[in-house]
Amino acid sequence: MFDKIIRHYSGYSNWDTNTLYLYFGILILTGILGYLSQYSKPFTNYQKISCNKHHRFNYTILISLFLFLLTISGLRIAGTDYPNYKNIYYSSNSVNESYFGIEPGFLIINKIFNYIGFSFEFVVFIFSFITIYLVFRTILDYSGKINLSLAVFAYVSLYYLPGFNMIRMYLAASIVLYSYKYFIQEKLLKFYIILSLCVFVHFSVILFFIPTLGLLIYKKNRIAFAILYLIIFIVSFKIVSSFSELTLIDRYTHYIENSESEINNNIGLFHWIINIPIILLYVYSIKIIPNNKYLSSLIVLTLCELLIGLLSYKITILGRSLVYYNMVFIIIIPIIIQQLKRHKARWINIIIIFYYIYLFYRFYNYLAEYLYLDGIMPYKTFFE
Known about the structure:
By secondary structure, the chain is an all-alpha fold. It is built from 19 helices and no strands. Helices cover about 65% and strands about 0% of the residues.
């Protein structure tokens, strides 16, 4: 299993097999501790307190998992953009955001920490804490509804390691993930205020306004949504080449200009592969749990993710924005699977096993392609 990844990176400098073992070990340990958190008995009466009497997690194990993930992430010196973030931090009180071309909200956060006198390494630890805490806090917000073991496994499979590199984007994504509960609860004003504030942490959050508006249309009229989606799907590929003329955000211009012709002609097979199983889950589940708000979120966000993923072959930055669809894998699918389990769906055990395999495939594919692109090979801490 490891040989294929090692061969892919043959000839690369600074290769460290122990780093590869570490990353796979993190995923395996997450799977074990996530399962024990959900299905083992609480150690104390205090831990029996939960948001829902029908499902109580083992919080000692869950907190242990949280601290483990925080330690690995918070103590790292890893990521292609790590030196840039360090330069931004130590220069934040002497220049404005236009100098770096970054979002003003993120710069203000850096200014505050810099003024207090925190070291950059400690600030990375704080960002890691906030990002991971919001993910775990969000999962706990759905206790009694969610398959926790699948939720934490999905987080580590898809979003944990990439967050080592893209600090502010994954910080913004964790806030979006946390705030999505307000959308589910139809507290739309609160949700869109938080979403708007996230734009000042990373501008790409703007792209997530579109699928949420599409979901509102879907809830009102599914036929209208289907027609609108088909129109946008067709038209977007016709006009996407004109995006190269947009220079509103200079920092992201190179993502558009760097599109290669052979990539532009790619049919996006990978994005079809990873999204079709999710669509099939919707088709299967709609017969068992119809008129379900989580199923509505699943199909709309998956279709939007598919479109964005296909367009990302033409404009690279669109691919990075897929992190804002993290609630599909961390929250929505684990909730749907748990609901299917309670309805004693016929193929539920096969679905659970398949989802684990699906997530492992995504994790493996990431390591096979992005270890050096994201700068997480080798793994180092600031103690070294």
